[in-house]
């Protein structure tokens, strides 16, 4: 089984019905969906640094972490892997809260994402999205253990 550690950010702005979340659009061949800005941690890289780096790469924004929301674990069976890698993938996903400190919205070039933008949180259920978005928004309500 392959293990992949990754770090992501939940970045919000506004309040009430106008509250928005920053999402990145991930694409790999015919599979795609909105996700949190973030991604793989490079060898030797601290997860906090990876999260901030990935936000900049995928959205053009400089971010400052404001807290740890939680850690999620997902196992993707070999049969569901995108490129038929032949082994399951265990993803460890570290999710931080963050705020924008500068920059401007810019779409990543030659990366795994092809769009980025602000979406009203109330509209997220209607988006084609990866499961991590729902997991992370649930973390905002308070972390709960996945197993008792």
UniProtKB/TrEMBL annotation:
List residues of the Nudix hydrolase domain. 1-141
Work out whether the entry's keyword set contains Hydrolase. yes
The prosthetic group or cofactor this protein requires is: Mg(2+)
Q: Where are the transmembrane segments?
A: none
Top-rank taxon: Bacteria
One protein family per Pfam: NUDIX
Q: What InterPro entries does the record point to?
A: Nudix_hydrolase, NUDIX_hydrolase-like_dom_sf, NUDIX_hydrolase_CS, NUDIX_hydrolase_dom
- Write out the entry's keywords from A to Z: Hydrolase
**In which organism is this protein found?**
Agrococcus versicolor
Query: Which family is it part of?
Result: Belongs to the Nudix hydrolase family.
Name this polypeptide is given = Nudix hydrolase domain-containing protein
Keyword Cytoplasm assigned to the entry: answer is: no
Q: Which Gene3D superfamilies match?
A: Nucleoside Triphosphate Pyrophosphohydrolase (3.90.79.10)
Q: Could you tell me which PANTHER family the record lists for this protein? A: GDP-MANNOSE MANNOSYL HYDROLASE, MUTT_NUDIX FAMILY PROTEIN
